[in-house]
Amino acid sequence: MLTLTAGLFQLGFGYLDLFNLDPNYHVLQISVGVLGVLMAWRLHLARMYGLLLLLSFGTLAFLLNDISTESFLGVRTALIGLFITLARPAKAAQR
After folding, report:
1. Nearest to residue 41, comparing CAs of 91, 1, 90, 92?
2. pLDDT at position 61, please?
3. Over residues 70-92, mean pLDDT
4. 16-28: burial string, b at 16+ Cβ within 10 Å, e else
5. Where do transmembrane segments lie in this chain (predicted)?
6. Which of 48, 78, 92, 95 is geometrically suited to a Cys-Cys bond with 57, CB 3.0 to 4.6 A?
7. Alpha-carbon distance 49 to 32, whole Å?
8. CA distances (Å), origin 83, targets 54, 79, 80, 91
9. Sequence-distant (≥ 6) Cβ neighbours of residue 87 within 8 angstroms
10. d(C-alpha 55, C-alpha 50), whole Å
């Protein structure tokens, strides 16, 4: 559920121009959002998506070397990836 939510938020932020970002960054956000929606259906794929967000956006945030909107969004997305990777799955409901 976390991966689906993160993917939908990435799609929304990529589609809407809320922060006046570079158009290439919007394409990146839309791509990451679509990937999140597609990978949300299996637990191992969802964790892989979280790890992918953590590593890629964490690296992107540290390579920018300045305080900008892109670096803030990179850190935010990396933290979301960390949360998805470390979150424990819910227990199955008893009938």
Report:
1. 1
2. 82
3. 87
4. eeeeebeeebbeb
5. 48-65, 71-90
6. 78
7. 9
8. 9, 6, 5, 18
9. 2, 50
10. 9
Please say if the pLDDT value at position 88 is more than 90.
no
The greatest distance separating any two alpha carbons of the chain, rounded to the nearest whole angstrom, comes to 53
Cα–Cα distances in angstroms (integers) from residue 18 to residues 13, 14, 40, 44, 72, in the given order: 7, 9, 25, 32, 14
Q: 80 pLDDT exceeds 90?
A: yes
Q: Above 60 in pLDDT, residue 95? A: no
Nearest CA to 70 among 31, 13, 6? 13
d(CA 78, CA 57): 5
Rounded to whole angstroms, how far apart are CA atoms 19 and 9?
14
The identity of residue 85, as a single letter, is T
Token output for 32: 């990451």
Residue 26 in tokens = 């919007």
